[in-house]
Amino acid sequence: MSDYPINMAIIPQVKAFFDEATNTLSYVVKDPDSNVCAVVDSVMDIDMAAGRITYDHADAMITHIEAEGLRLEWIIETHVHADHLSAAPYIQQKLGGEIGIGEKILVVQDTFGKIFNEGTEFQRDGSQFDRLFRDGDTYQVGGMTCFAIHTPGHTPACMVHVMGDAAFVGDTLFMPDGGSARADFPGGDAGQLYDSIQKVLALPDAMRLFMCHDYGPNGRDIQWQTTVAEEKAHNIHVGGGRTREEFVKFRTERDATLAMPRLILPSLQVNMRAGEVPRDVDGNPVLKVPVNRL
Ligand SMILES: [Fe+2]
């Protein structure tokens, strides 16, 4: 842990955008010492029944970035999301910036390339992305030296991104009263997820943690920000010193009761292509529904 270039003195401005359709949080993160920003986990709107894609959520982020006079340098995906579609290419086309994800995207592309019976034109080398991060890799958002921590378990390519005193935890953790994300998708592993969560909890107590999802458990309002100290003390799945064995048993039993996310089929096809919608032989955007494969 000590090898990561942690700098709690850098305090970026974080603006959250909540997507009610998928309970996803997207973020614009601004370097405190320049006008440079990053986007974390954007959302593209889809009406599956109609097969219609729109960009209201992404447009709200773009409007904010333009109104603040910011320059977008990075479009980060914490992982290949299974519950919403990324708007990364749409935002990149409007504002520029590089799209980055964990290098284990190759594992995800191989797994789901088979499930969706993708042809040879679907490259499984991560080349749809501009940057593939390994554990500990750094990148600049203006003056901020940011870094990625490999946190597999929910999916193989999950990474937590740390920018100054703020960490974007993806689906490793939810708010303390929400616990943790499922670990039963292809390539998921509850034991790995526990180990990855420990990496997050080893960050400084005061580090701000920003969630990718919140479902407002027990009827509370949507929240997305907590700290390492709060998660260590109060997380209902891993806080208070719950052991690895206890977590794996609990997580495995819980996951067996969960339905597939409503948008898993379109999400995976799009997100494993860095947010591009696949196309048919005539070049028209199209999504598949493989039957009885998940
Ligand atoms: Fe996820």
Automatic annotation (TrEMBL):
Pfam family, one: Lactamase_B
Keyword Metal-binding: yes
GO biological process: glutathione metabolic process; hydrogen sulfide metabolic process
Listed GO MF terms: metal ion binding; sulfur dioxygenase activity
Name under which the protein is recorded: Glyoxylase, beta-lactamase superfamily II
Domain Metallo-beta-lactamase, first and last residues per copy: 23-213
Keywords carried by this UniProt record: Metal-binding
Domain of life, source organism: Bacteria
